[in-house]
């Protein structure tokens, strides 16, 4: 297979330019506003400029061209490293990256000023690029969670090893290298190809990892209540539907609880909305701390919450919910000015037992029953739990 470096370089430039255009098109969107995407955009820009300078080698020959083209590509590598750092740790440029960029550029300038042989310049540039990839690999190994980051690891290893081999290649070749466009052996053209593949894999992997993270964040925002960290109404209702189905299939009981803070309006009215919010947060934390990992806890709106207890029968559910009620009774929410807020909660608990009841309720039917029991608890004086089975509405 013949590999003409000029053609490879053109193909590479086109790939980089395409990625740059894609990054430009997401600007202004939720994805485009992510700081690592901005850094990736700048990295692609620097790399495209470096590619262009390499391609114009014939027109712009000389030490300045060598310095500019390679520094531009190295700057692209540092921007990639900053994008990886930003994605993984929330911080961008590290002093280490900037020192590596500056040190490499000064070293290259000194070699060029001394008129060093082209073979040594090739070695220096490739070692420089290999070293610039190390912080990316280190960060991904240390902090990486997203699956797309595996592409970054593969790219970093392939790119780094190829760059090191390219650094050694001019000293092993029988003929001295004179230009990037005239490879000294078929191996050097291959190494150019694998190094480019590595760099491209890093960029693409970082881009995909950023998309993966945005998707996870958007999903969390769409299913979570921002104030209390509980599931929101939509997500809770969906999960209740799944749990009813599971309970029917596995023939295990299921308890659905609606909890509503008592006289919550008074807290808002006498201490302000911020104090009300603090009470809601304290309440959510207190309830969450008493629940099992498999239980579901969601905020249905305002001061109404829902708890789903899988594999829990009627007496077990009543016990658990009454313990939650007592926990809330003991809760004290401290506010500025030594204000200590206390609150109580009423609960309606409905239990579906597939072994005792032949008819499987829908989520809406269970919610309606729990709501009716909650209403009873409110009217019977608040700060209490009303529990019943799904079919028989006799309180426990
Ligand atoms: N601080 C705060 N208040 C909220 C929020 N959502 C709803 N509220 C308030 O919660 C109060 C609910 O009042 P009501 O529905 O009358 O219920 P209550 O005062 O708890 O009375 P009972 O339920 O009958 O014991 C209203 O004042 C709402 O403005 C919120 O996110 N933060």
TrEMBL record:
Identify one Pfam family in the record.
GGDEF
Instruction: Tell me a Gene Ontology molecular-function term this record carries.
Output: diguanylate cyclase activity
Keywords (A to Z) from UniProt: Membrane, Transmembrane, Transmembrane helix
Q: Which residues are in the GGDEF domain?
A: 252-390
One term under GO cellular component: plasma membrane
The processes (GO biological process) annotated in the record are: cell adhesion involved in single-species biofilm formation; negative regulation of bacterial-type flagellum-dependent cell motility
The transmembrane segments are: 6-25, 37-56, 62-84, 96-112, 118-137, 149-168, 188-211
Keyword Transmembrane helix among UniProt keywords: yes
Q: Does the keyword Translocase apply?
A: no
Query: What is the E.C. number?
Result: 2.7.7.65
Name the chain's protein: diguanylate cyclase
Organism whose genome encodes this protein: Sphaerotilus sulfidivorans
